[in-house]
Amino acid sequence: MSQWIYFFDLCGTAVFALSGALAAGKHRMDPFGVIVLASVTAIGGGSIRDALIGATPVFWIRDPNYMLVILATVITCLVLVRKPHKLPPRSLSIADALGLALFTVIGAEKALLLELSGMVAVVMGLITGVGGGIIRDLLCRQIPMVLRTEIYATASIVGGICYTLSIFVGMDSMTSMLIAMFSTLIIRLSAIRWHLSLPAFDLKTKRT
Amino acid sequence: MSQWIYFFDLCGTAVFALSGALAAGKHRMDPFGVIVLASVTAIGGGSIRDALIGATPVFWIRDPNYMLVILATVITCLVLVRKPHKLPPRSLSIADALGLALFTVIGAEKALLLELSGMVAVVMGLITGVGGGIIRDLLCRQIPMVLRTEIYATASIVGGICYTLSIFVGMDSMTSMLIAMFSTLIIRLSAIRWHLSLPAFDLKTKRT
Amino acid sequence: MSQWIYFFDLCGTAVFALSGALAAGKHRMDPFGVIVLASVTAIGGGSIRDALIGATPVFWIRDPNYMLVILATVITCLVLVRKPHKLPPRSLSIADALGLALFTVIGAEKALLLELSGMVAVVMGLITGVGGGIIRDLLCRQIPMVLRTEIYATASIVGGICYTLSIFVGMDSMTSMLIAMFSTLIIRLSAIRWHLSLPAFDLKTKRT
């Protein structure tokens, strides 16, 4: 069982490292800069989570596999994805959506393992899911995805609630994870595909 | 006594959550994005403080009331403040000033409780007071208030020094808090009202 | 021996505080804003490092000398560097390069003292070296140096690898430090002087 969680965690790491590397490629960074941005995107959210709950040293210090997955992803990316026109459109958004789904579930699961409350589990899923991407976007001076009108934080919060509720009604961990991941992924991919958004909270005050 | 501190802390949380929600409203974010920005603003500074001093899990993980206050504030804000022209001008700056005063005192007080030095207490007041607002402004791609020429960090540092000195000369905690909060609030509100600023440190080098 | 490491650490603190103060001067901040930016630059990287490895309370809370060095640096800077045309060109870049070299070695050394792996030591050197500067640049809304095409992260990673390898082949700590600092400094200063850069990873996709 827990091997699956570990496998998902490494998958999420690879996918977010890829999204960081792609963002770095759009900014013409050198190979070590690519490694830095890929790492920050892949382990940023989980590092914030572990620092907040006091699970230190944080996960990637205790387990070198995370860094190795990031290095392997970046090297593969640098070697293979040289031809830009071979890159499918929206690849960065889709890699990011996949990472969001995987990391939301991992974050919620780690919180529940530590016997934290359901509300905290949802928040930890959100932090793990969106933290790395926010740091990536801040460093690249992009508007963080979480701030754009398309559904983003919502997808992670819904996934976290799905996971937490599924566990609370007694489902096994694997089923809960799959339900939560699919709900996050479907919401986020639909939002990307059809530019869905919730009604915005709109305050256009002239002066504040 | 300590109930008052707790009450002030929840007030500061509500006020900063409001300032985050108002900032989100200016960027047309969806309701879940509003919750994220309100939370980051309200608990960002205290989370950094707790992570730095090692008081983990950080405060809002141990006590669900902070998250509930944020949720209640955001929902109230979404429901009530629909009509933008009903929002008084400078409401974001004033909410921010009030949060700055409350959180500066809370941060300094927590440091002194842990028997850290007076200098560290002032710094912890500053981190608690300005941390959340800095993250809010970074995410919204605003120039962080702490960087603007108007007196901002100064108000928090003066408040922290007032609190620490008042405690050191033997005043009771409540009086010290009120003195410190009023000094921060008066300095900051005066700066907003009359656009006060200290003489700037101005380096206009052509090349660096 | 360890006095030398401590001395280097305080030197790095002073140098990064100076780079933060110079950046603040370019943004016309008031004296307390200068202190905030100088502090964040000087202790930001090390604070992230200590929070991630769980060495809390972080170093500058336990040892007031770091804050005192920052205060002394800022006051000296405010008093002396009034005349902008007296400031040599590229002074910010050079102060930053020196801080990068000093802090990279300090970060790697602290990780090895805690018996963490060589790979983690290189990463901790990188975080300590570039963390403060990234926060400084984010707050000033500059493109973070680590994102620019000139060699930057590379210099820190090479320095970290040099230090870790030197220790592993049995050199004494002092020699390893000097080797690592000089390699970081020479790489970074050469990159500044001759605008060197590694071949960039360039992805110019029209749509992502």
From TrEMBL, chains A, B, C:
Keyword set includes DNA repair: no
UniProt keywords, alphabetically: Cell membrane, Membrane, Transmembrane, Transmembrane helix
Pfam families (UniProt xref): Gly_transporter
First-listed, main subcellular location of the protein, grouped into a coarse class: membrane
Protein name: Trimeric intracellular cation channel family protein
Protein location: Cell membrane
InterPro entries referenced in this protein's UniProt entry, alphabetically: Gly_transporter (IPR005115)
GO cellular component: plasma membrane
Protein family (similarity comment): Belongs to the UPF0126 family.
